[in-house]
Amino acid sequence: MRERPLTDDPTVHVYYPLVQIPGQPPWYYGAMTIVVRTRLSEPTAVLPQLRRILKSLDPEIAVEKAGTMREVLAYSLRQTRFLLTLLAIAAAAALTLAVVGVYGVVGYLVARRSSEIGVRLALGATPAKVRRTIVQETAKLLAVGLGLGLLASLAAGDALRGVLYGVAPTNPLVYLVGAGLLVFAALLATWIAAGRAIRLEPMDALRIE
To answer: What pTM was computed for the model?
Structure first.
């Protein structure tokens, strides 16, 4: 069973009937945890009845820290949840900066090729073909960058394995969403910048440095 942190591996436990446990430490510490399963929609509604039963068994028994199993799990994960919340905020900020950066850099690089685009158009290339060529070249660079980034993220993902529970650091959905946003930003920037360039007159484009 899992005793305290859910991130630890389950350990083997042995349960004894209470009447067979000696009364001296370390067997008996004076406090016990009782787990009760109920079919009630509101589990805490069973507490008054439990208190009456325990009082009938021994009037000196005191019940404290009563709560649902959901509350127990939430309490045990409070530090991990806080840490992961901070990491999620930092990751969202980093992803936003990456998307904005990719959009700006790609748009700038395509705009710098305005003179080349003007030459292509002057030599008879159609605007659709020029835009398609630029998008394809950007996609190749993007594939290389995503490949390198994927390898780096897989290597760094092992550092988070100790604070994750029920989720693998190599969750495919996370990688697909992150990579999809970057691809969308890069291709959108390429499409917009290429569209601006091909709308220029060839002679005007040739004069742009």
So the answer is: 0.56
**Whether the Cβ atoms of residue 64 and residue 70 lie closer than 8 Å to each other:** no
Closest CA to 64 of 104, 38, 30: 30
The answer, yes or no, to whether residue 205 has pLDDT greater than 60, is no
Please give the Cα distance from 190 to 198 (Å, whole number).
12
- Of the two residues 23 and 151, the one the predictor is more confident about is 151
Which residue intervals of the chain are DSSP H helices? 47-57, 69-76, 78-111, 114-122, 127-157, 172-198, 202-206
Say how many C-beta atoms besides its own lie within 10 A of residue 103's C-beta: 20
Interacting residues of 135 by C-beta distance below 8 A, sequence separation 6+? 187, 190, 191, 194
Please compute, for residue 106, the number of CA atoms within 13 A of its CA located in the half-sphere on the CB side: 29
Longest dimension (CA), the chain: 99
Q: Which residue has the tokens 């005793």?
A: 3
* Per-residue pLDDT reduced to its tens digit, 14-39: 877 777 776 666 666 667 778 888 88
Residue 18 CA to residue 21 CA, distance in Å, equals 5
The residues, ordered by sequence, that sit 6+ positions from 120 with a Cβ below 8 Å of its Cβ are: 130, 133
Are 163 and 123 contacting, i.e. CB atoms less than 8 angstroms apart?
A: no
Encode pLDDT of 56-84 as tens digits: 888 887 777 888 888 888 887 788 788 88
